[in-house]
Amino acid sequence: MAQNPKIVTRRKGSAEQTALAEFNFSKSDLPRLSDEHLRAYHWSAWETSTTLPFPTLRDDPWRRTDIRGLNTELFRPAEFSRELPKPPTGLLDPVTTGSERAGQVISGMTEPQRWLDEDAAAQGVVFMDFHEAEEQHPDLLNRLLGQIVSPAEDKFTALAAAMASDGVVLYVPKNVIVEKPLQSLYWGAGENQAFFNHLVVWLEEGAQATFVHESASPKGSGEAQILHDGIVEIYVGRNARLNFVELQSWGDNVWSFTRERARVMGDGALEWIFGAMGTHLTKNFSDIDLVEAGAQGRMSGFYFASGRQHLDHDTQQNHMAPNTTSDLLYKGALMDHSRSVWQGMIYVAPGALGTDGYQANRNLILSKGARADSIPGLEILADDVRCTHGATVGKIDESLLFYLLSRGIPRKDAEQLIVMGFFTPIMERIPFEGVRNRFLDAIQEKMGQD
Amino acid sequence: MSELTIKDLYVSIEDKQIIKGLNLTIRQGEVHAIMGPNGTGKSTLAYTIMGHPSYEITEGDILIDGQSILGMKPDERSRAGLFLAFQYPVSISGVTVANFLRTAINARRRHAEPPQEDISILEFRKLLKSKMDLLEMDYAFGGRYLNEGFSGGEKKRTEVLQMAVLEPAFAIMDETDSGLDIDAIRIVSEGVNAIKGPKMGVMVITHYQRILNYIQPDFVHIMYNGKIVESGSRDLALQLEENGYDWVREKYGEPELVN
């Protein structure tokens, strides 16, 4: 039988026709580092970033998030300028009422500030930005960087690993307990600037800490964009306890790409709280790996979108060992023409007996034009496990509104009250009044606008 | 003295006529009982007075002191002095009774002429506690989410608490006794008695007369087939208890069936 030549025709899809142009960064934009190992980490990540393509709508995790509007060619690595707005003092307030904190790091488009409680420092706690860590603890940084998140995960991750000169490392040695919260603020400002940052939170066996990290920038104006590209790596050692509160109130001109992963060891516990109010577009990956027996992870998320915001959160609860527990609750409200995507997966590895996994995503749609996609998923390869999930997208019940109206509460206030109530179960998981109030104020501000 | 007047009222829902020419006047300080068999439009009347959007008024008027309230939204009607104690109060997750009531009080203050400042937390706590004392309610109610996990009796007591805090000129109680055992009816009624006075007109809508053993009405009206067919004193209620509604049906005919 004669072999006919195979004719392959290739039609360009729309995604390819408008493929994003490469960023205008170069190797000379990489942080200048004296430590050769650190330099190698950044350089290798840079090489990786140049070989990886931009994700497109054809890549499964990106199916619902179109990034073709990103002005890749215009971004420059952020350079400090005194002309740009400074962080408002409210952001620098302690998030706990009345009490102090054990340390604070402020970085980004501001004069860096860092300090740590003397007691904690004396016990070997390290809490500082990368610039300081590169000078004082290059070996520690070398040991921790890239252990949890591989730069090769995707283009944005590689780029963040390569470019991040702003970063924070929190290291708590074995059995050291930091009672007061540690706080960091990452501040971005300036159009067409790119902000790369990298958090490393490492708790050795038996250690305990509470860490509040906030990213913020001024409200956006005009068409110009800001790029935020970040990595968060978390390690919770055996019997260690970490409370990690992460908030973003980026301006509405920010496009944010973040890759976050926590590894929890035997009988360790992670309480991870996450709040999103800002950005024009967010694509966030948050994974929790429970790698030894008895590891626990609880993830609580809230988001409130308005205008044309697009917030995409991708979560993964990986049960890799027996008797591990995970509990995820994400709640969001959406106004105007905003859109949210939540895609969650509970994975139970073969042999991870006695797993208890839970995930729920609840969405409240406040305007006709808003939309929430909620996609739970289970992949269970072990017996004797208990995994449950739930996803809902709903509107405010008119009968609730009528009830509140009948008490003299105007419609707008009634809606606000119902939304506040909707978020209460998540708010109750946040141990800081300052954080709760900031979020509630943001809701009020968004809902107060016509 | 204020006066709530319902004048030749016709109400339909989804093109079905429910109320067909109803007249009633309630003055502050008076207690009126509206009794009638099921499906005769009693709850429709309550919702219509409060301004529920599903009910369409095709004819007639509802007035407070001669001013029509038909153009007013439910929240405006509430601030004008109306209150509806719901037959089935909804629960609002995550919103405490105290927070909800404070929001309701502040809505009144902000819309007052001239606008008043919000009530201080301290002043509000004092007010809420004094009303809870009056109704012999546990202070813990204030911290519970509104009606979430409440028993039937607790829900109705919470309605009365709201009534006590908001001090309406006219309170409509829509089958407050339904689903309650006799002890709960007594407790809720005692609450109503504790707060009603010369400044509150009350409309007690009920199927059974037993709640009227506790809340003594000045007037009893029988509502049947969308209008008030008999009005009288307390004796009328006792007559209904003895003889049921059959004589009403006989006297005024079976309602027309609407298909």
Properties at a glance:
heterodimer; A: 450 residues; alpha/beta; eleven-stranded mixed beta sheet; ten-stranded mixed beta sheet; 10 helices; 21 strands; 37% strand; globular; B: 259 residues; Rossmann fold; six-stranded mixed beta sheet; four-stranded antiparallel beta sheet; 10 strands; 34% helix
Describe this structure in words.
The complex is a heterodimer of chains A (450) and B (259). In chain A, α2 (36-51) runs antiparallel to α7 (155-163), α8 (398-405) packs across α9 (411-427) and α9 packs antiparallel against α10 (433-448). Chain A has one domain. The radius of gyration of chain A is 22 Å and the shape is globular. Chain A has 450 residues and is an alpha/beta fold. Helix content of chain A is 21%, strand content 37%. Chain A has helices at residues 14-17, 36-51, 89-92, 118-122, 130-136, 138-144, 155-163, 398-405, 411-427, 433-448; strands at residues 76-77, 103-108, 113-116, 126-129, 166-172, 182-187, 193-203, 208-216, 226-236, 241-249, 254-264, 269-276, 281-290, 296-305, 310-319, 325-334, 339-348, 356-365, 371-375, 378-380, 386-395. Chain B has 8 helices and 10 strands. In chain B, a hairpin with a 2-residue loop joins β1 (3-13) and β2 (16-27). The A-B interface holds A 397, 399-400, 402-411, 413-414, 417-418, 420-425 and B 50-53, 73-75, 77-79, 83-84, 86, 89-90, 92-95, 99-100, 103-104, 107-108, 111, 145, 162, 166.
